[in-house]
Amino acid sequence: MNRVLLTGNGAAAWGARLAQAEYIPAFPITPQTEIIETLAQWIDQDKMTARLVTLESEHSMITAAAAAAVTGVRVFSATSSQGLLYAMEMIYTVSGWRAPFVLVNVSRGLASPITLEPDHNDVLAARDSGCLQIHCSTCQEVLDNTLIAYRLAEDPRVRLPVIVNLDGFYLSFTREPVLLPEIESVKNFIGEYNPENMRFRAHEPMSHAVAVLGGAPYSYFRYQTHLAVENGLAVYDELAKEFEQQFGREYGVIENYFADDADYVFVMMDSFATKAKDAVDKLRATGWAIGLLRPRLIRPFPAERFRTLLSGKKAVAVIDQNISMGMGGVLHSELCTALYGQPQTPEIVASFIGGLGGRDITVEEFFEIAKSIRHADEINQTPSPRLLYTETELREIRKLQSLANVKLHGFGETS
Amino acid sequence: MNDKPVTLYRHMKDLPSTHLLGSGTAMCSGCGGLEALHEIYDIIGEKSLYVNAAGCMTLLSVYPFTPFRGSWLYTAMASAAAGAQGVRDALDILLEKKQMKADEDMQVVVLSGDGSAYGMGLSATSSAMERNLDFIYICYDNEGYGNTGQQYSGATPHAARTSTSKGSSGFRGFKKDLFSIWAAHKPTYVATVIGSEPVDLARKIEKAMQLKGPRLILALSPCPTGWDYDPQDSVEIGKLAVKTGIWPLKEYVDGKVRHTKLPKQRLSVDEYLKRQGRFNHLYQPDRNDKLINEIQIDVDDYWSEVVE
Ligand SMILES: Cc1ncc(C[n+]2csc(CCOP(=O)(O)OP(=O)(O)O)c2C)c(N)n1
Ligand code: SF4
Ligand SMILES: [Mg+2]
Fold this sequence. Notes:
The structure holds two protein chains of two kinds.
Chain A: E1 2-6, H1 8-18, E2 23-26, H2 33-44, E3 51-54, H3 58-71, E4 76-79, H4 81-86, H5 88-96, E5 102-107, H6 121-124, E6 132-135, H7 139-154, E7 162-167, E8 176-180, H8 183-190, E9 207-208, H9 215-247, E10 254-257, E11 264-267, H10 273-285, E12 290-295, E13 297-299, H11 303-310, E14 315-320, H12 330-339, E15 348-353, H13 363-379, E16 386-387, H14 391-403
Parallel strand pairs in A: 2-3, 4-5, 5-7, 6-7, 11-12, 11-14, 14-15, 15-16
Antiparallel strand pairs in A: 1-8, 6-13, 10-12
Chain B: H1 32-44, E1 48-52, E2 71-74, H2 80-96, E3 107-113, H3 114-120, H4 122-130, E4 135-141, H5 178-184, E5 189-194, H6 198-210, E6 214-220, H7 224-227, H8 234-243, E7 249-253, E8 256-261, H9 270-273, H10 289-304
Parallel strand pairs in B: 1-2, 1-3, 3-4, 4-6, 5-6
Antiparallel strand pairs in B: 5-7, 7-8
Helix pairs in contact in B: 1-6, 3-4
The structure holds thiamine diphosphate (TPP), iron/sulfur cluster and magnesium ion (MG).
């Protein structure tokens, strides 16, 4: 094993290289582009044997990716934000093809307004698609989970696309020390892609993705996909155990940071969770019984694990780096659905939205969140959902608006 | 250039007598697209994989049945050409790595309607041509979004009534020239065909099968449902499309366009138009000389530039 400094994008590219992806349909988009540029360079320099093809759009890219996967080769692709949305028709379609391949999504906020920095509305738009989702918070995790993702995608109990998510900028462009496993040991772990009977050959004709007539056959296939996604939970456990035995790094379905003995728990996804960890450290130093739970798997959603891990807690703060317009935080709703009506479930599950478009969440804000759920527990009343924004930020916006003489009325401006 | 190409197909009797594509599909009776597909499939054969875009033909393969002896992959309306790219690339990778025997290889074929070929799928197709993808693209052109009830598309001819052009002048736009759009990419082969001229069609498929690279087979597909005529007239209407010069049979190879059938004495466009309900408004309640003339002039202009 080799220790190197890698960006999140670099780690994702190494994941594809070590997994010996054979086919890479590509399309550029910030902040993902570095991944396909890195792979293209390796291929040009004969450091990697694969075919990289730039399609004319992400819609075509995902179509080609899945078509190649069902023909019988190992496929890698990557996108971000607008690209993922442009591909969305096919993201939903190809899970129905049961096409096993790995797609890295580098999270970036969605237009409008157009921006480059991260939040999770892009990847959560694929939430109901039938693709599995692994969310990462370090560069090492990106590399390791890209490898695990291939096993997961290709496992006969799953056979579905897997999306590995990392945050744009905060992870994609941040260099961290990463242990690079030897290719031989990765081969040991992953092996060759065996498409079994799902492949196109002249003498074994196959009709794939055919139409159905009526709700009964339609439901049959939709349920099949749903059940296969659910299988992903136990399969991930198995694979993570195997991975740990071989490489010594442990990955659970949910990362548990001091949550066992905690009364209060933050719940967050992806790289901003490292900010929450920092807050947990500082709060614990002053005597707080507080911890963090970070789901790695978002699909399948680890509902049962959350129930167990949160059983008996006083209060939970879900900090969503996404916003479902007119409803609020997606993870919050999902967690509430998982917990509602269960024995010993925490009475307070409060919602906070922050970090949209890469807006920072400061340690002071985490302190405030902690205090607010402690208070909620004391008075036994769940606070209404909070949109994190400081007075200073609003003042700055107002200043800019007045400088540019922006007229606010008529746009449904709410103060 | 004018050497007679070597061909198996000189007369009707040379055409395959057994048919490969199964019957009993959900297509309308008299479907000119299906007629062409039958003829094409007989020649391409079963060592093929059809990548389909959303349209009438999507209903050929309905779980768990298919009329195809070879393979099939339904994609979406916009990206069948990208599906063909993925399949072709994967097959090439497997062949290179010797993970697949050469005789397991297949002809990759895109099968789409005009809505896809002239419109939503054009960007994916253009980029497949850029990459010189080795595939055959079959477009059955029924001149409208047939599957959704024959709304006008980029392939609808001037003045045709469709479900979104029901006014007294019919469709105000003009049929897009997909043949030239393809030819502008300098692909290997582009040909127009029609099911009612099976020998011409067979030769073109035969030729396409001998070539590699992007190849388009553009089949005008008389559609009783969308064009509003009796299903038994499909072959007749197809023949009239050629005899009136409305559907020129031609091919593009090596940078040159060649007409494969020159209608010696072109019939007046009336013969074609008045047979179809979609042009009824040109004749009822009164004859619309202006529009009919426009259509005739358009056809005459086309042929006046054809020198063979
Ligand atoms: C993205 C998308 N938009 C719209 C449709 C609805 N749709 C299905 S088939 C079809 C018509 C396709 O027309 P064409 O390609 O000419 O094929 P035809 O139906 O005439 O056989 C349309 C619009 C779709 N399937 N996908
Ligand atoms: S609508 Fe037209 S093209 Fe479609 S199946 Fe019927 S006849 Fe064929
Ligand atoms: Mg059509």
